[in-house]
Amino acid sequence: MSTKHIKFVEAPPKKSRARTKLFWVVSVYDETQLGWIAWKVNWRRYSFYPNAGTTYDENCLRDIAEFCASLTKAHKRAYYDDGAECYYRARVKEST
């Protein structure tokens, strides 16, 4: 995916059985790597990890946030469609 100033490039998975994706955030002007987007386990969502010394305006941040939100939504939809939601709900009932 690409926006006016940045593009998101899917990186190869670190593990062969990885369930989440990794994306590099790259400038469309000079191909400079600005940071990466990866799954944040504790937050249960994709998050942006900027490289040191990079600066962003509100439009770039909005594009990054929207991309993270769409990745999170797609990941959760795929995860819950596999029956995990039923398993999770059963586990919650057991623990209460």
Mean pLDDT over the residues:
84
> Which strand order spans the largest sheet, edge to edge or round the barrel?
1-2-3-4
SS class: alpha+beta
Task: Report the end-to-end length measured between terminal Cα atoms.
Answer: 42 Å
Q: How many H/I helical runs?
A: 1
The main β sheet shows up as: 4 strands, antiparallel
H/E series, N to C? EEEEH
Uncertain runs are none
Give helix % range: 25-40%
Describe the structure.
A 4-stranded antiparallel β-sheet has the order 1-2-3-4, with helices on one face. The longest helix is centred in the last third of the chain and has 38 residues. Helix content is 40%, strand content 27%. The chain has 1 helix and 4 strands, in the order ββββα. It has one domain. The mean pLDDT is 84.
What are the SSEs and their pairings?
Elements: E1 6-11, E2 22-27, E3 33-40, E4 45-50, H1 58-95
Antiparallel strand pairs: 1-2, 2-3, 3-4
What keyword list fits this structure?
96 residues; alpha+beta
Quick structural overview:
The chain has 96 residues and is α+β, with helices and mostly antiparallel strands.
